[in-house]
Amino acid sequence: MFNGSRTYSPLPSSPSSSRASSSSSSSSSLPAAPRRSPRALQRRGSLLAQYSSLLESYTEGEIQQLVSALVERYSQAMNSGGHELPLFPRAGSRRKRARARHKPCALKELEVSISELGLGYESDETVLFRYCSGTCEAAVRSYDLSLKSMRSKRRIKKEKVRARPCCRPLAYDDDVSFLDAYNRYYTVNELSAKECGCV
User: Fold this and answer.
1) Is residue 85 part of a domain?
2) pLDDT at 18
3) Would 9 be classed as within a structural domain?
4) Who has greater pLDDT, 161 or 169?
5) d(Cα 118, Cα 43) in Å, to the nearest integer?
6) pTM for the complete prediction?
7) Does residue 142 surpass a pLDDT of 50?
8) Does a structural domain hold residue 13?
9) Which run of H or E residues covers position 115?
10) What is the domain count for the chain?
């Protein structure tokens, strides 16, 4: 296997060749051929020069931010059971994210407290909140394509229109009743989705 740091010594000469070289050296002296360093070392040196010039362009504060971000990422990887530093996202993770963006419209659920719903009620009671999530790429109709074309040609300018279907509830669950923190009784209708579709 080739080793980048190997140096080559001249071949041992025989007495006759040394005599011939001494006689020829007296008549004409040939300059020694310049020694070439191995290519791997040249590439490594130029790469180090590039990185050092790049780091010199940063301020001390920016370098500290970079190092702290790398340390934080490394500690997160080690805490999650990883054994290597994930500096660059893998192609597989990009594909997973692309698949996640194109999941079809579906009904999901989440257990939350009444206070977390953001309707202004204070209560520790929990409800099962069902919601619609996903994309509607397969539900694009001629209407959506034509509307998109009219918007791109600026035939429709001021109106706020949506040129693609959206994943929304088609039907709602039963009304939800609860007691708030002051023992007052409330009923909220159309809170959770029962059925989802592309509208």
Assistant:
1) no
2) 45
3) no
4) 169
5) 59
6) 0.47
7) yes
8) no
9) none
10) 1
